């Protein structure tokens, strides 16, 4: 008697009651696939959010004008407090790698009669380092372009695709941005969509001075991106920016900040925590259905033991030990759970794919969730199979043989 | 003729306690069986004949007394050891056949071999041999439900003899069969006893069946009240031939 025999016996037992076996498995199938889909959706969302946040740049501090979080998109006068000089002063601080101010707005881009609406982003060449921008053609504009307020532009892929005929290299051509002629100096590599689903390629970068003076006629910038040298120095740089700006803006010690420094790492952490909680919540709801599936298995195993009392008696009469009988029913419960588990995994993976296609929501099926579901279903098989199996093994062979259905 | 002692029961008692009452299902049974015997145990219901057969077959344990099987005292063995003895030394034949309905004849016959831990090739060979021996060579892949009662009981006999036991214990083996089929089954059992030298102990309430044996043990209220040699053992094969002749003559 060995484990192979146990499997043979279990399979023939399960095969003999196909419909019942499948219905019993259904509980586990639904439970396991629910767990996998839920974790996949949760982790997909989490992965996407963190990818997007880190694609904005690592070790990134963002300095917004206006007081407090709520005023970031606030109205009117209070949002005009940051200037290019502030950005240059921040660049002088220790542990600061890159400083890129941003001033953006929408504009109509036109090339040889083809028009397209896109966002222009007035910034400095440091933006390349912060956003990890690279060019597929030409190059980014230079510090000199910023200093000289040159009319040069670096185009995102979406713009190129929409206003240029295929096969034309935009570098060296002239586009009109709100009727103003810009020379194209570079084309950017694609970045994909942002957190909000916004196309990050539908953008063109121009020198910040050009945006201020030639396009908008303002002296402020919308925000300043600051990349620190290391993750550890972020806190230090944040407080030095705060004291520097208070000083530069001549704020009395009683008045509050007219700017607001946000740490992207803490934003990322908050977002990750939120999605982790969501994932756990979804997974635990799914786990409840797995538990219900397990109870279903125990129920059926108990019925099966009662139904097969005579068989158990006979097996004992021809030499099965208690251990053999225990093994037989345990293996049977485990085969039910594990095959349910495997089918559940396949359905779960397929379901996760369907969710991401239908809902446009990214999913990621991880090895962890597959192992978790498999382990869980095996554990359920053992846990809920043990009691019925023990009951079977404890039968008295004479009574069992005499048992009338 | 048989000579060596195969099993010995000394002062076997089986007591069931029902509340205050003690019921002596067996009350001091002394019996000795020799190798190659063919014995029938008879008695009215409640006489303890089934209990005695269960104790002999190691399915049950006596409350008191000594049980010596092939020279070894097995009175104090644990459940697993008893399971192993049942597997190696005994073959069981039941009134209700007790075949597994959902699996093939082959799987049914192989059952004791699986628990004996035999390898597949030998299992297959032994199963074939046992089925051929009971005259059901072509029925390996049948399901028991597709067979007649007599055939099912022969499958059960094949199952009982497949692991080459030294004893076959039969509890009313013909109880569920008509008289002609009963004689057929008795012919198989007699052949088993004569050709293979297997000791047969059977419980029956039917005197006609008991006279195919060579020894008759009569139980009453847990005591052996009669233990006689039957000098004129009937030959089931001959009876069967006579029956067939008679049927042909009538036709």
Automatic annotation (TrEMBL), chain A:
Give UniProt keywords alphabetically: ATP-binding, Cell membrane, Hydrolase, Membrane, Nucleotide-binding, Transmembrane, Transmembrane helix
Domain MacB-like periplasmic core per the UniProt entry, residue ranges: 21-243
CC annotations in GO: plasma membrane
Q: Does the keyword Cytoplasm apply?
A: no
Membrane-spanning segments: 21-42, 280-305, 325-347, 367-387
Q: Name the PANTHER family for this protein.
A: ABC TRANSPORTER PERMEASE YTRF, MEMBRANE COMPONENT OF TRANSPORTER-RELATED
The UniProt similarity line reads: Belongs to the ABC-4 integral membrane protein family.
Q: What is this protein called?
A: Macrolide export ATP-binding/permease protein MacB
Species: Pelotomaculum propionicicum
From TrEMBL, chain B:
User: What are the coiled-coil residue ranges?
Assistant: none
What Enzyme Commission number(s) apply to this enzyme?
Answer: 3.6.3.-
Q: Which GO terms describe its molecular function?
A: ATP binding; ATP hydrolysis activity; transmembrane transporter activity
The superkingdom of the source organism is Bacteria
> Keywords of this protein's UniProt record, alphabetized?
ATP-binding, Hydrolase, Nucleotide-binding, Transport
Task: Name a single GO cellular component.
Answer: plasma membrane
Q: Which SUPFAM superfamilies match?
A: P-loop containing nucleoside triphosphate hydrolases
- Report the InterPro entries cross-referenced here: AAA+_ATPase (IPR003593), ABC_transporter-like_ATP-bd (IPR003439), ABC_transporter-like_CS (IPR017871), ABC_transpr_LolD-like (IPR015854), MacB-like_ATP-bd (IPR017911), P-loop_NTPase (IPR027417)
Task: Tell me the ranges covered by the ABC transporter domain, including all copies.
Answer: 7-246
Question: Does the UniProt entry include the keyword Transport?
Answer: yes
EC primary class: hydrolase
Q: What is this protein called?
A: Putative ABC transporter ATP-binding protein YknY
Q: From which organism does this entry originate? A: Pelotomaculum propionicicum
Q: Which gene encodes it?
A: yknY_2
